Amino acid sequence: MYEFYKPLRNRLRQYWVVQGLEVVYRFIQWLEYDRPLPQELGSPALPRDRMRRMAAGLAPWEFEILARELLLNADKRRGSRSFASWHEVARCINSIKHIENETWARHSVAADDIYYELVRIAHRQFPWQRGLSRSYISSYLRLYGSEELCPLFVEEYGMSPLEMIQLTMALSGHFHTDFTIKLPMRNELNAVTPEVFDQFVRRFAMTIDDASQETRIVQEYNINWAYTFNPLRSRPLLRLPSNEVICPIPTFLLRRGTSEVYFDLVRYGDEFSRRYGPSFQRLVGHIASTLIKGTSMRVFGEEKYGPKAHRKDSIDWIIEDDSGTIFVECKASRVRYKGISDLKNRAAMDAEFDRIRGFCKQLYKTLADAIAGRYGHWSHSGKPLYPVVVTLEDWESFGVKVEEKIIIPLRDELAAEGINPAIIDEYPPSFCSLQTFDGLIFIAGKTGIELTLRGKVEGEHKQWALDTYLSNRFGVLLRERADLVLEDDWNQLGRRLHVPREFRGER
Question: Which of 77, 106, 135 is a domain's end point?
Answer without folding.
Answer: 106
